[in-house]
Structures are given as structure tokens and as C-alpha cells.
Design brief:
- A hairpin with a 2-residue loop joins strand 8 and strand 9.
- The protein is mostly beta strands.
- The protein contains 1 helix and 10 strands; from the N terminus they run E-E-E-E-E-E-E-H-E-E-E.
- Strands 1, 2, 3, 4, 5, 6, 7, 8, 9 and 10 form a 10-stranded antiparallel beta sheet that branches.
């Protein structure tokens, strides 16, 4: 299984919507780091979101509201960005199987899917 922290996670889906890299822009991704008690950085290809996270028992995960740059993003990036912020706020747990990470809400529904692209 991939490691949750210090792995480059490509964002493949948010609430069932598939995300893809847009020409000339960074691909949608998130990286969780152990530093400073747990920090993350994420983007769908436009603005950068940075915040903190806390790992709980039995796969629990809390993502703190992140600071975000505020560039105007063209479609579909604008909608994906809103989805990402929403999903992060609803995430209650995480599960890793092989190179795949999923976020689940409080009811256990899968709300995001990621693929490990770079393993340390």
C-alpha cells in the first residue's frame, strides 16, 4: 500500500466526477506532509490550497480549512475547485488499497478517489 504522507496523489474523482489535467496546467493533485503536525497542499490546476490535517484512529481524517490563492479559474477548474473544498470539509476517513486512496464521508460513502503517482 502507498503511504498516506509524502506521496503525490493525483486527484482522479470528486463526488463521482472525473478530473483530468487541462492543457498547459498542473494536473489535479494533493500531497500530505508530516511536517508541522500534518500539512497538505492541493490544486485542481488553478489555485493552490494549503492547510492542516489530523489523522484519527481506524482511518479517521480531519482536513482543516485551507488558505487558498484567489485567481479566477476557467471552467471546468472553477467547479472542480469548489468540489475539492467541499469534499475536504466533508471527509471523515481515508482508506488506502495499493496505489489508491479514497476519502469517505461520515456515512461511509466514497467522496473522492486518488492515485499514487510518486512514492518516496
Amino acid at each position: 500500500d502507498a503511504s498516506f504522507t509524502n506521496t503525490y496523489w493525483r486527484i482522479d474523482a470528486l463526488d463521482g466526477d472525473t478530473l483530468t489535467a487541462q492543457d498547459g496546467l498542473r494536473e489535479p493533485h494533493v500531497v500530505f506532509r508530516d511536517e508541522d503536525g500534518g500539512r497538505y497542499s492541493a490544486t485542481v490546476g488553478c489555485n493552490q490550497i494549503n492547510g492542516g490535517f489530523e489523522l484519527g484512529v481506524d482511518g479517521g481524517l480531519t482536513l482543516g480549512a485551507g488558505a487558498m490563492t484567489m485567481m479566477a479559474c476557467p471552467p471546468p477548474l472553477d467547479g472542480w475547485e469548489r468540489q475539492l473544498v467541499d469534499v475536504m470539509g466533508r471527509t471523515a476517513s481515508r482508506r488506502i488499497v495499493g496505489p489508491t486512496l479514497v476519502f469517505e464521508d461520515a456515512d461511509g460513502a466514497v467522496i473522492a478517489r486518488f492515485e499514487a503517482v510518486y512514492l518516496p
